[in-house]
Amino acid sequence: MNFDDTPEEAAFRAEVRAWLAANAQPRRGREDKFGAGLDKPQYLAAAKAWQARKAAAGYAAIVMPKEMGGFGGTPAQQIVYNQEEAKFLTPDRVFEVSLGTALPTVAMWGTPAQKVKYLASAFRGEHIWCQLFSEPSAGSDLGNLRTRAARDGDGWVINGQKVWTSNADIADYGILLARTDWDQPKSKGLTMFILDMKAPGVEVRPIRQASDEYHFSEVFFSDVRIADADRLGPENDGWKVMMSALMKERFSLGENFSGDLYAQLIGLAKQVVWGERPALEDPRVRAGIAETYLAQFGVELIVRRGMSAISRGQSPGPEMSAVKLIGARAFQTGGALAIELGGAEGLVAAEALGAQWRLPQLLWLAAPGARIAGGTDEIQKNTIAERVLGLPGELRTDRDVPFRALEG
Amino acid sequence: MNFDFSEDQRRLQAEVRRVLADYSTSPNVRAVLEGRTLYCAETWRQLAALGALGVALPEAQGGVGLGLLELCLVAEEAGRALAAVPLLSSVYLAAEALRRAGSPAQQALWLPRLASGEVIGTAALAAAAHRISTAPPPCRVGDALTGTLHALPDGMAAEICVVLAGGELALVELNGPGVTRQALSSLDPSRPLARIEFAAAPATWLPGDGAATARAVTLGAATLLAFEQIGGAEAALYMARDYVLQRRAFGRVVGGFQAVKHKLADIYTKLELARAHAYFAAWALASDAPELPRAAAAARVAATAAYTLAAEEGLHLHGGIGFTWEMDCHLHLRRARWLGQIIGNEHLWRDALATALIEEAA
Ligand SMILES: Cc1cc2nc3c(=O)[nH]c(=O)nc-3n(C[C@H](O)[C@H](O)[C@H](O)COP(=O)(O)OP(=O)(O)OC[C@H]3O[C@@H](n4cnc5c(N)ncnc54)[C@H](O)[C@@H]3O)c2cc1C
Fold first, then answer.
1. Is the pTM of this model over 0.90?
2. Same domain, B220 and B330
3. Which residue, of A136, A296, A351, B47, is most buried by count of CB atoms within 10 Å of its CB?
């Protein structure tokens, strides 16, 4: 048991450090962020330029094989890189879906031609990807989706609608799950496709989120044509492809749920006065700080354990569901604790209250979404109960029925 | 980086697990629970024969010369098997205090016998952070010790006791003059307690800063107990899981009801969190890392929360049969409570964690 770098890892760390120092801005404080003051198109351009530089150095896809445009590195090297990159200002959210789920899925299921066509350019940030799974009638029950892909000559015609698609407004491509066989039971007749978001018939309508941001959209398809060459994985095997994407997502999400909210809470509670004393002296505040640490650092440790398992050639499985349950909840309770500290004044938005309040307020506002996205808390618990603990699945009435018969 | 135990360490763990499954059986644990014996002597002998008691002690002192990581895995298995043996008192506390700070003579005299299990030790290393009784704690009078210890684990079975008195560590022979002991019944009778009165009891004193040694040993014990707790929590979780898979109601197994599934998923999640922190504490303990104060406190809080939930809800998921003396559910319930506060309750440790975090942030 050790956290030390092997000599190779230490050498890699030194390389990464030198490269970052030459190519990125060091993070001076917690409030420091990439692209401050840029509007959305400028931010995007800056983010893409950063990604191109990172890819040129080989760091865009560290664990991806070299022949796919990756670095051919180890999970440990990925951790080393992430640790070092965290000390610098880099864009967030733009490439998360691309690198975390969509591209690994293309790498896993794609044909040689698809890999050549799509991977390297996306690693370079030329293209942004999104994940088109959920629909108005299909979220937790994803198998209920009804976007139709109908065969037409050597291609497919897509009609239907997706919703809650993160990054759809900035994406160039998406992996799209659609129904190809209505006579099979619900999760059976599905196929995964690669969709060009600029194709005729694709319409993206951004949705204003509860957090007053626009990160997800509705996407409508009217007679959108996809060549069969852009089918990802076997026909009617889309469920399997989707599951592997979700596993990647769960793992890549892990890192997003760590963080140092507890350290920020310490800073804030030092500054806020309760009665005549710093709030930091109150045992309830101290307990809240300790619990936030337990959750956030715990998530980091669970992810490291998963990484160690990967290094040994094992695959961390559904137990990663625990990470999302713990981490998303910590955003909510830890963020709320920060806001609570100041009583009525704590309700003042960070723009007026001070930059040090920005992150906790953002986390608190994002937390409800984090508890839903990528499978809700309840779905994660079902996954743990069924896949880890071996308990029975939910009672269902739809399992062996052709999808056509379920409609209405 | 390898944030896990090695293959060799896992093999040792499997061996301890096998032996405990044979000897730390429910009837043997219950013999202690019902007061027929002070601890499971046979389990203790088997652990000694495996080298488990001296696994972290140097070979020169009768130990096996492995380390604290191995001892963590012994602890996990002891927790899983509800072992009714004085591991905390004799191994995590007394032997560790002597290993870290005993004089060469004290080490030579006691460590080989603690490692072989022939002598049982115990220790009182916390300057009573919480107190119910008001009798004055032990203090040094000349070379002797005078004062009272309440609720000392294994106080009846032990031959020696290491006591923190005014910033120094005393070693007292409990069968010697000036010592009166009284057995106390405990809420977990499988881990008995005693009240000890010292009246000018002869003591030898450990060299060095006793308070610092006591702190270090206590952080180690918090880590080791966290492993007992995750072992116990895992046992309680899977015991409940197995039960709900065979118990039927409303035409199906109760394990199919979502409220039951989610309760078990919650236990699993708390357990994974505790395990992650316990491993980190094990690393910090074994490598003498500066992170140990926060790592050990975090492990203790997370593991206490996990075992408490697993024991309470594990019993609940058994329904009425879970509330019988005959079922082992209450053994976990009692042990979870005992482990959760024998070296200071969860609240104090949570505050210690906050203190460590605040110090690190400064
Ligand atoms: C911020 C954000 C980003 C997202 N990004 C994407 C994206 O990029 N691509 C994409 O495809 N989707 C995306 N989603 C959609 C997300 O995957 C779904 O919202 C989620 O799976 C839940 O589905 P739903 O919204 O239909 O809720 P529903 O499934 O209708 O759930 C409603 C409530 O019922 C509960 N529930 C449902 N089924 C069960 C059950 N079996 N047992 C117990 N409780 C149950 C749920 O937990 C929930 O509380 C995103 C969502 C959010 C919030």
1. yes
2. yes
3. B47
